[in-house]
Amino acid sequence: MRIEILTIGDELLLGFTIDTNGAHLARELAAVGVEIVRRTSVGDGAEVIAAAVREALDRTGAVITTGGLGPTADDMTKPAIAALFGRAMVMDAEHLAWLEERWRTRFNGPLPVSNRQQALMPEGARKLVNRHGSAPGVWLEDERGRWVAMLPGVPREMRGMLADTLLPTLRERAARESGAGRAEPPVVRSRTLRTTSIAESMIADRLGALARGVDGLSLAYLPGQEGVDLRLTARGLPAADADAALAGAVARLRELVGTWAYGEDAEELPEVMLGRCRAAGLTLSVAESCTGGLLGARLTAVPGSSDVFLGGVIAYANEVKRGLLDVPVEMLAEHGAVSEPVARAMAAGARARTGARVGIAITGVAGPGGGTEEKPVGTVWIAVDVDGEVRTHRSVFIGDRGEIRFRASQFALELLRRTLARTAAV
Questions:
Q1: Domain match, 86 and 28 both
Q2: Could you tell me if residue 273 is inside a domain?
């Protein structure tokens, strides 16, 4: 089955909203064997919506849209596509009654006139139930078997409807179209090996002959602030065969990449390191200067982090470094705040203040100003103190202020990972 995705909304074209719906649809559909041949974004105008759907139907005969099903004047998806199919818009009395009751019980008042359009459906369309919001989805199909599935643009509603209603329909359809009564259609599945603190080119050198792919599986390099993700993709195999091939390929990549690999798929380094500290019975605290609490925020974003992470100090000013972390004034005067001795003292101070067994300190020049010839913008000193044994590292990170701060927080976790591995603490 070949499908095109059309995401609708002026906000997507203007850059105010990131198209997370298109990405989620592509991942979920690939997992059930659907091939996404094109993703397109258009504005809210009825003419551009109809034109984009018409072109997609001519290419594949199957389109999923998101957006434009709301109650306001710019929600034109249903009437635009209904007109394309030559269908009139008719009122769904059952959904209108449900809307009126919902508004009365939840908002203690009558249904606004504008919301009535959410109960309008193209004639002959199948309603896709939305258990997560007020706008139903729509399945509209013509006599040639070409179809459009319309989903809301609100990500929570779209994802819920996709799982509840649309994916089961597509699985059945894909199984029929795969031919020969095949019980299990081919799938498109991916697995990702996550690395950090190693360049994309260095990974390719390590992989050698596997740099272009592993046993027929495609390999993509996805560099980002966290590091370089290695994504393997299996196409055209039954689910069990795809999973087995991916598992073997990931194992081969991990062996070649070695210690640079820290996790797989959606695993992030804060989650990984909290797990390792938890397994080793280690508690953790932080002392942050240029990152301003970013490392602590990333750690506490992980559910269950409270059994490992005790807290920290945002010591931006030297006075706070002295007063709360006991960094000696003489040390600050002699070496400056961005220095190895100060990073060491900050990590020790964080441990002392919180009673944690592990202290992580970050101090640096995030820019865009403040750099010198000796300490240019991007210079960051990081210290990891585990039960009094300290490991430090100086980096000069590239990027803007936000990127430097994020990369500093990422490498702080990576330095902790290396330190624990070296000391056999986990």
A1: yes
A2: yes
User: Are 369 and 312 found together in one domain?
Assistant: yes
Whether residues 256 and 401 share a domain: the answer is: no
Average pLDDT score over residue span 238-256: 95
Domain identity same for 305 and 323: yes
* Residue 394 burial (CB count, 10 A): 14
Domain membership of residue 182 (yes or no) is no
180 confidence band (pLDDT: 50, 70, 90): very low
CA–CA distance, 262 with 397 (Å, rounded to integer) = 20
Distance from C-alpha of 137 to C-alpha of 158, rounded to nearest angstrom: 9
3-state secondary structure at position 290? coil
Helices (H) and strands (E) in the chain, counts: 15, 18
Q: How far apart are CA 214 and CA 251, in angstroms?
A: 11
Q: Does residue 44 sit in the same domain as residue 160?
A: yes
Roughly how many angstroms between the first and final C-alpha of the chain, as a whole number? 47
| pLDDT tens by residue, 100-156 | 999 999 989 999 999 999 999 999 999 999 999 999 999 999 999 999 999 999 999
The C-alpha atoms of residue 282 and residue 358 are separated, in whole angstroms, by 7
Q: What is the pTM of this model?
A: 0.81
* Percentages (nearest 5) of helix, strand, coil residues in the chain: 45, 25, 30
Q: Per mean pLDDT, which range of 81-85, 99-103, 391-395 is the poorest?
A: 99-103
Q: For residue 6, which of 84, 73, 72 has the smallest C-alpha distance?
A: 84
CATH number of the domain bearing residue 208: 3.30.70.2860
Contacts of 330 (CB under 8 A, 6+ apart): none
Q: 185-189, 224-228, 251-255, 407-411: which range is least confident on average? A: 185-189
